[in-house]
Amino acid sequence: MTDEHNFRTLGCYRELLSEDQAFVWGSGVVVETPHIDSLASEGALCTSFYGTTPLCAPSRASFFTGLYPHATGVPINHVSMNDDMVTFAEVLRRQGYKTGYIGKWHLDGLAKPGWEPERKFGWEDNRYMYNRGHWKNIKESADGPYVDAPKDENGMPNYDLGDADENSFATDFLTDRTIEFMDAHKEEPFCVMLSIPDPHQPDTVRPPYDTMYSHFDFQTPKTLFKTKAQTPDWIVGNLGDAVDDHLFQKENMAGYFGMVRLIDDNVGKILKFLKDNQLDENTIVVFTSDHGDLLGEHSRLNKRMPYEGSAISPLIVRYPGNIKSGKLIHSSISTADFPNTFLSLMDSVNVLDGVHGRDLSSQFLNPDSIVRSNEVTYIRGVMSPLGPPPYWLAAITDRYKLVIGKNEKPWLIDLEKDPDEVINFYSKSGYESTRARLTKELKRLLVQTEDPAMDDPDLVQWLR
């Protein structure tokens, strides 16, 4: 799992897009990702995998538990997941799997870095798990891992690169620990999760990746400049990092691309280990992220928005002999659907009871090369633990997106006709049945998950 990863930076996703959508930062401006692409060519790629809330902690909580954020105790960042949550890792641990978690966790409150949290949630070996932060230089002493960086007056290390190299830069360090875990447990069933804290701000990476893409003339995305009619209230009123042409820093994009390339090279190291140890044919490999990063699209950096660049997470699953190579799944899936889908891919494995997420394993395991479902999922904006309810809700299929905000009529986005997401089709002729279906399904899903958004009259008025 990477952190804040725009799907357009992966070649396997880019090749599915029109040129206009593939090169939003300029023609030919790409980062190469051959190892991640190889997972897609040998497994299944999901084109519409959405974070239940496109923010780090809420999306992660859903990914592990199969529940929507309001039910996990994590509707926003920097709060602790409820003690009684059961994760897919706990299911596997109970069945004899050796489980290990390495990297950023972000479900244990304010602790920072917060190495080796006391609550393990099924991750038996969590020595290299830390709660939060985007540290660049990690080293190890006899007392365990630590961040090697200057500290401020409060004793908190900063995000400086320092002397980070191929052994201590966070992506490299955490990958090496992952390989060590697999090597130690290769003779028995294991489940290990590598959670890389990049490609997240501050958009810095070690040499030589820091200059690999500095020659590119990064262009501002065309949706950075929008008219008032193209700008919903839910983007104006929502929290987020607004940018303009002056603030769209091209050197940050070069750093972002460099981080992605380094991640890909480390994925290559993991795949090589599996192959060298004859584990590649009997190991499920999943590549994903907690959410995306708008990187200037729609005048925003980072996440929190229902736009594709923010809300979509890459999801690629390779399972030799079980998942058809090169498979494309065009179905709307949320991070809450992951646990039971993943567990059901495996023989003789129990699933989580009483969760919101679906078991979609049949879509991965069937013999079809292309799977397209018109089912509806929903995602939601950030919600404070103390209220108010989220600023927006969205019902989504592979093609359509109904976004309901507080202060204006809803937006209906047709991704086929308007992939830029700047036209509201809600009141346009020919969309009546689509609008009605998405509205009905959104209400059903909100009731099913007992979403507190149903208590907000400003949102519910559009669901009648």
The figure for the number of domains is 1
CATH class: Alpha Beta
| Secondary structure: helix percent | 25-40%
Largest sheet: 5 strands, mixed
What is the CATH third-level topology name?
Alkaline Phosphatase, subunit A
Shape: globular
Distance between the termini: 38 Å
How do the strands line up in the largest sheet?
A: 9-11-1-12-14
Radius of gyration: 21 Å
Oligomer: single chain
CATH superfamily: Alkaline Phosphatase, subunit A
What ranges have pLDDT less than 50 throughout 5 or more consecutive residues?
A: none
- Mean pLDDT, to the nearest integer, reads 93
Query: Which structural category do the helix and sheet elements fall into?
Result: alpha/beta
Please report the number of helical segments.
14
Instruction: Give the total of beta strands.
Output: 18
Question: What fraction of the residues are assigned to beta strands by DSSP?
Answer: 15-25%
Description of the molecule:
It is a single chain. The protein is built from 14 helices and 18 strands. It is an alpha/beta fold. It has a single domain, classed as 3-Layer(aba) Sandwich (Alkaline Phosphatase, subunit A), CATH 3.40.720. Strands 9-11-1-12-14 form a 5-stranded mixed β-sheet, covered by helices on one side. Strands 15-16-17-18 form a 4-stranded antiparallel β-sheet, covered by helices on one side. Strands 4-3-7 form a 3-stranded parallel β-sheet, sandwiched between helices. Strand 17 (400-405) and strand 18 form a beta hairpin. Helix 7 packs parallel to helix 9 (250-276). It is globular and about 65 Å long. The two termini are 38 Å apart. The relative contact order is 0.16.
